[in-house]
Structure formats: structure tokens, C-alpha cells
């Protein structure tokens, strides 16, 4: 049977189990096989009953000679099974599992795995697993333990995986040669051993092979995407003619600040891409406030001087407006003849434009036609009408990069240069593996007038003092304060729970800071309301803004110099760094205070790292090392695709798989491995339509 076989066809499986598997995202046999154990319990020692020692974790096999349920004084239901073998007898005891009385019947041979304890001077057995008959998958071996979700027990998952393994054909995706060089076991063997290993060594071998597969497929896929993009030649070309170069130089000299060396470097990288015959696919990464916008402006200007148009998409309406104003402001020094016309398409496709044609609505298309730079949200690209002469599309603060946007632009019949900008700190190893189809530019140093945000971890005993200190800052220096409420659900959408928590915190703080003006901002508010709150906060009509973590507050508020982050231990370091970036935008000293909800030593140690380090990419790398790739909180928010079994910090394996990708491409091997081709295409679908 093929591995893409639908999960509905799984033998001996009830409809309700199938439904549960599907809610876990498991739609095919193969996806079921990729639901890996998160740990194993070693029950491979099979003991005779007379040799049981307290403290051991073992398996016994014997005949059930008696069973009963008793109810303890506290109401606990206890199931007792008397088990005998040739050497003796012991009581196997379960708690609150009455259904077992109908499963484990008298006179049956049953295997039990669990721990041995002494109670009232008697040896008792506390099984965690049982199996009717001799041990096969649940007992008497290294037993795989799965994450139990959506009402599916580890036991059921184990059984279903066993069935899938028996009935499916697993195609090899690597040539023998590659397996040999890299000391990898076969694909089929790896799936068998990851779920049902006989030894610890087999687990390691299986992990190595499957992690290799995972990294290899991701890298191969992005290399193929990159190649296909390079093949598509543009039907226009942009040139850096001497007069254009001169105008741009003048523009740079007239900016209100001097470009930092990093800004110059990334501008040169972009400028060089823009002159090529194939489209640019570059990701510009720089911390919040590092000055990415001006680079975008230079790129748009260069495109304009070549008589092409730029589209700029921001994630929110507020940020689009802010960009519009920044663009207008920075271009205002330029002589009218060389100044691009800028428009903002707002909600409902309304147009705000400096192009002053009377008669508004009907003229929308005309104005768009006349604009050189069009700014808006994602709605820009979902407009029915397309744009002509688009030379560059800039996407600001996107969580998914490249593949998805290209696909969308293509649907519109556009094949422009593409510049994506993000403040999400992407560790280099992630960039190399996951986004191999893109070129990267990094702005690492902040503009010089910027003071690093002073960051402190505040223990509960100091909370009051901290509030007092903040009150003085508000009174004496008119400081404005952000309060970030705890991250309650790991979700990119606002949930009612977090809104409630924020409301509660807002009420609580309103009491503590009663002499000041507070305001609440959360994601369930209407867009219009949110804008009003932000505008008022930035006009300094409020002192303290209380907000949930998922609300995007990308707007520049130079007077905001203090940020409090509640339950900071629930965030990843990189996330904390981004939150902290909401302050420290002006020339004044800013402060970030981290409060803990659950104080553990490891949480505090981790938070102390961010009090010392001010660089997003380094913090992201630390996150990877400290918490492991699967555990970076908020990965979904960042759009990082989560690895199932490999690790982004495994440089050794990343190097190996990179070589293998090269080997595959240069020897044209892909077509010989149809199951590999299938797996690449399913990965691409995931990248284009997340979740
Ligand atoms: P981000 O990278 O987060 O988009 P912005 O482009 O909004 O950052 O820049 C943040 C602030 O820094 C803006 O107010 C901008 O005018 C200012 N800025 C940008 N580049 C420089 C520079 N080289 N020197 C001083 N200030 C700068
Ligand atoms: Mg920005």
C-alpha cells in the first residue's frame, strides 16, 4: 500500500479514532508514521515474579487468577489483579481504571510493565502498561511514549502506528551511496526502529536517519525553488545609469541622518540584485529600530528612477500609514522633478494620495496609475485589478517569507523583484536550512544615537518598588509605559482568555496607578478602535498602555521609554527582545522590566541572558540551544516551521545534508526517487498554505 494512503483506510480502526487522528493533522498513513515518540520507557527486562526488586521498572508475564475493585476511603477506585507465574504471585494494582476489569479477565495470560514497590512489607506491582498475552508492543520492550492529545492515548497511537507500519510500503529516498557515506540505515528500517526499537542504539540510528531526511528534504526543496526562480528571466531590466547614481547619492546626502555602515552594505546588496536579469528574492533582517525603512525607500527610489513602480505592503493599517508618512517626509527634500508620487491605499480600497486630482472615487484607478509608490496592507495584492510596470514589491514584517508571496504575486501575473523585511531574529542556521531559496541581508548595528534598553529582571519582592520608581518617572519625566500582559495561549490569534487577563491587569493597574491615565489595547477590539487608542497614546493622552502580547504595536512612540513584561518566562528570548523593541526608539534612555509568574532557577537564568545581550539573532540562537527547536515558544507566531525530529542547532547534520543536496542536483538524481519528489511537493504546499 502506498504511504500517501488516506488514514480513513486504516484497518481495525474506529471512526472516532480516525477523527481524532485527523484533528492532530494526521491525514495519511505516512503522517501517522511521522508522529514520533517524544520519549521511551525501557521495559525490556522481563522478570520472574520471585525476583522482583523494589524500585525496578520491569515486565512480568503471568496468569491472572483473581481480580477485584475496591474503593478507598477517599473514594479512589483501585483495581487489583492477582498474577502468578511458575515462581510466585504478586498483586498488580491500577488506579481509577475500572474498565480494565472487563479487559483483563481471570485465567488470561497477561503481560504487565511498570514499577515495583513495597507496601506494608509486601511487594506490589504498579503497571503503567499491560498487554493481553505475551509482550509485543506495549510491554516487554523499549516502549514508545507519544504526546497524548485530543483524547488519543499513547497506547492507541502505538497500536495504530503498528498497523500502519505493517501495511504500508515505505519508499527509499536516498541512493545507497549516500546512505553509506553518511552511515545511515534504510528508510523503512528507520521508521520501524523509531517506533519499535530493540535497543537504545537503534533509537539513535533511527533518529539520525530521519533527522537527515527532514533537513535534506527542506534544503533540497528550497534549492529547487531557488533554481526555478533563477530560470525565470525578467521581461524588464533596471540600470544604474550614471545620472541615476548621481541622483541617489544626492538623496542619501540629504537624508536627515547618515546611513550606518550596515545600511550602506545592505543597500549595495539590494542595488546589485535589482540590476540582475532574474528577480531578487531577498530577506532583509534587522532588529526593531535598526533602520530598514530607509533602505526600502532607496530601493523604491532606484526603481522609480528607472520608471518602474513599487508596491509596499505592511502587516497592519497603522504601519502602512506610518510608512506613507515616512516616505513623504524623506522624499520631501527632493526636487519636484525627481520626486516619486506616493499613494496609500487604505481599508476598503480608499485612496489617500498626494496626487491631487479632484473627484476622488472614480479616479482611484487613475491615481493608482499615476502613483510611483503604492503603500498598503496585504489588501494591495488582493485588489481585483492588477498593476502595471511593477518593478519591486516590498513586504514589511511578514511572518512567512518568499515562497508564499511569490505564489500570490504570480497569481496576479507579476514577477517583480521582491524584498521582504523582518525584525524576527532568524538564527543563521535556520536561515540557511529553511529559507535557502532566499538571499539574506542583515543590519546588525543600530544607528548610533540609540541607547540600548536597560533591562532588569524584577523579583516579586521588588515589584512594589519598581511601580514606585515608574510613578516617579511618569511624574518627573513624562515617561510613557507599555505593559505587556502574560502570554496565555500559544496562538497567533487573540483568544478570549488573554483578553480577559489583559482586562483584569488593566483594572489592577488602574488601582495602583490611580493618579495616571491608563488605556487598554487588545486584539479583539475593532481595527478602528485600536487605531484611535494608538493615536491617542502617541499624542500622549495616556501614560500607560496595557496590552496583550499578540497585539502588533509596531508604531514609533519615542516618548515611550518603559516597558513591563509580565510572566516573561513564558516568552522566548527572541520574542522578549522584540517586545522590548517597542521602547528605546528615541534618544532617551529606556527601560525594560521583566516580571516572572513562576519563578524557577532556570527561568531566571534564562531571563538574565536578555538583560545582558542586545542582539536579536544571538538571542534567537540562544533560544534554540536552551529550549530546543520544538520548544521555542511562539514559533508559530514567527512562522517558523517546526522541525519534527531534526534540530536547527545540529550544524554537523546540516552540513551533511547540504552536501547531499549538491550531490543530488549535480547528478540529476531527483527523478529516480519518486517518493522524494512527492515529499518535496507536500512540503511546498505546507510552506505556501501554512497550517
Ligand atoms: P525598523 O528597522 O524597525 O523598520 P525604522 O526604519 O523605522 O526601523 O527606523 C527607526 C528609526 O531610526 C526611525 O525613526 C529612523 O528615522 C531612524 N533611523 C534610521 N536610520 C538611521 C540612521 N542611520 N541614523 C539615525 N537614525 C536613523
Ligand atoms: Mg519597520
Provide structural commentary:
The protein is built from 24 helices and 21 strands. The model is unreliable at 629-639 (pLDDT under 50). It has an eight-stranded mixed beta sheet with strand order 11-10-12-9-13-14-8-15, sandwiched between helices. Strand 20, helix 19 (573-580) and strand 21 (591-595) form a beta-alpha-beta unit. It starts with 14 loop residues before the first helix and ends with a helix. The chain is of the alpha/beta class and 691 residues long. Among the domains are: 39-145, Nucleic acid-binding proteins (OB fold (Dihydrolipoamide Acetyltransferase, E2P)), CATH 2.40.50; 242-274 and 291-422, 3-Layer(aba) Sandwich (Rossmann fold); 454-613, P-loop containing nucleotide triphosphate hydrolases (Rossmann fold), CATH 3.40.50.300. Helix 7 crosses helix 23 (651-666). The radius of gyration is 30 Å and the shape is globular. Bound molecules: adenosine-5'-diphosphate and magnesium ion. The site of magnesium ion has 3 residues, from loops.
Amino acid at each position: 500500500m502506498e504511504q500517501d494512503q488516506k488514514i480513513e483506510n486504516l484497518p481495525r480502526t474506529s471512526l472516532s479514532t480516525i477523527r481524532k487522528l485527523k484533528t492532530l493533522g494526521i491525514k495519511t498513513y505516512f503522517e501517522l508514521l511521522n508522529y514520533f515518540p517524544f520519549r521511551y520507557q525501557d521495559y525490556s527486562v522481563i522478570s520472574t515474579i520471585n525476583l522482583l526488586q523494589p524500585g525496578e521498572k520491569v515486565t512480568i508475564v503471568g496468569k491472572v487468577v483473581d481480580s477485584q475493585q475496591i474503593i478507598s476511603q477517599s473514594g479512589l477506585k483501585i483495581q487489583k489483579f492477582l498474577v502468578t507465574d511458575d515462581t510466585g504471585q504478586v498483586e498488580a494494582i491500577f488506579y481509577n481504571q475500572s474498565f480494565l476489569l472487563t479487559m483483563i479477565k481471570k485465567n488470561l495470560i497477561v503481560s504487565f510493565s511498570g514499577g515495583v514497590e513495597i507496601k506494608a512489607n509486601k511487594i506490589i506491582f504498579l503497571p503503567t502498561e499491560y498487554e493481553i498475552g505475551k509482550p509485543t508492543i506495549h510491554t516487554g520492550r523499549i516502549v514508545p511514549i507519544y504526546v497524548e492529545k485530543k483524547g488519543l492515548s499513547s497506547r492507541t497511537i502505538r497500536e495504530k502506528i503498528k498497523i500502519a507500519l505493517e501495511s504500508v510500503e515505505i519508499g527509499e529516498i536516498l541512493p545507497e551511496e549516500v546512505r553509506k557515506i553518511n552511515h545511515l540505515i534504510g528508510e523503512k528500517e528507520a521508521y520501524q526502529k523509531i517506533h519499535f526499537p530493540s535497543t537504545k542504539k537503534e533509537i539513535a540510528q533511527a533518529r539520525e536517519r530521519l533527522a537527515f531526511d527532514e533537513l535534506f528534504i527542506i534544503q533540497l526543496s528550497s534549492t529547487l525553488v531557488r533554481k526555478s526562480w533563477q530560470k525565470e528571466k525578467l521581461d524588464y531590466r533596471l540600470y544604474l545609469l550614471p545620472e541615476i547614481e548621481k541622483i541617489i547619492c544626492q538623496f542619501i546626502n540629504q537624508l536627515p541622518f547618515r546611513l550606518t555602515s550596515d545600511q550602506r552594505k545592505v543597500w549595495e546588496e539590494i542595488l546589485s540584485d535589482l540590476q540582475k536579469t532574474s528577480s531578487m528574492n531577498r530577506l532583509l533582517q534587522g532588529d526593531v529600530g535598526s533602520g530598514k525603512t530607509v533602505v526600502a525607500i532607496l530601493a523604491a527610489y532606484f526603481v522609480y528612477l528607472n520608471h518602474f513602480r513599487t508596491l509596499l505592503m505592511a502587516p497592519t493599517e497603522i504601519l502602512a500609514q506610518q510608512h506613507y508618512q515616512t516616505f513623504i517626509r524623506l522624499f520631501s527634500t527632493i526636487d519636484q522633478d525627481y520626486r516619486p508620487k506616493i499613494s496609500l491605499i487604505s481599508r476598503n480600497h480608499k485612496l489617500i494620495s498626494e496626487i491631487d486630482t479632484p473627484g476622488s472615487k472614480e479616479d482611484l484607478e487613475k491615481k493608482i496609475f499615476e502613483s510611483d509608490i503604492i503603500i498598503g496592507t496585504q489588501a494591495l495584492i488582493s485588489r481585483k485589478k492588477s498593476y502595471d510596470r511593477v518593478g519591486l514589491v516590498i513586504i514589511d514584517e511578514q511572518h512567512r517569507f518568499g515562497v508564499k508571496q511569490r505564489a500570490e504575486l504570480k497569481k496576479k501575473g507579476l514577477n517583480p523583484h521582491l524584498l521582504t523585511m523582518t525584525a524576527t531574529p532568524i538564527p543563521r542556521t535556520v536561515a540557511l536550512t529553511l529559507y535557502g531559496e532566499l538571499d539574506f541581508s542583515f543590519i546588525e548595528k543600530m544607528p548610533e544615537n540609540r541607547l540600548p534598553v536597560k533591562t532588569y529582571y524584577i523579583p516579586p519582592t521588588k515589584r512594589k518598588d519598581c511601580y514606585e520608581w515608574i510613578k516617579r518617572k511618569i511624574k518627573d519625566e513624562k515617561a510613557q509605559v507599555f505593559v505587556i500582559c502574560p502570554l496565555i495561549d500559544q496562538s497567533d490569534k487573540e483568544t478570549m482568555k488573554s483578553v480577559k487577563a489583559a482586562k483584569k491587569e488593566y483594572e489592577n493597574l488602574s488601582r495602583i496607578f490611580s493618579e495616571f491615565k491608563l488605556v487598554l489595547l487588545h486584539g479583539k477590539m475593532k481595527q478602528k478602535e485600536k487605531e484611535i487608542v494608538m493615536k491617542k497614546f502617541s499624542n500622549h493622552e495616556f501614560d500607560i498602555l496595557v496590552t496583550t502580547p499578540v497585539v502588533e504595536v509596531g508604531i514609533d512612540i519615542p516618548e515611550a521609554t518603559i516597558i513591563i513584561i509580565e510572566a516573561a518566562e513564558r516568552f522566548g528570548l527572541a520574542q522578549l527582545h522584540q517586545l522590548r523593541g517597542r521602547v528605546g526608539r528615541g534618544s532617551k534612555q529606556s527601560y525594560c522590566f521583566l516580571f516572572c509568574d513562576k519563578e524557577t532557577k532556570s527561568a531566571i537564568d534564562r531571563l538574565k541572558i536578555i538583560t545582558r545581550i542586545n542582539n536579536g539573532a544571538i538571542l534567537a540562537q540562544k533560544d534554540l540551544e536552551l529550549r530546543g527547536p520544538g520548544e521555542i515558544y511562539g514559533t508559530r507566531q514567527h512562522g517558523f516551521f517546526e522541525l519534527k525530529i531534526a534540530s536547527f542547532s545540529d550544524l554537523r547534520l546540516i552540513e551533511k545534508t547540504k552536501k547531499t543536496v549538491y550531490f543530488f542536483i549535480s547528478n540529476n538524481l531527483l527523478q529516480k526517487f519518486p517518493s522524494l519528489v512527492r515529499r518535496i511537493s507536500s512540503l511546498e504546499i505546507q510552506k505556501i498554505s501554512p497550517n
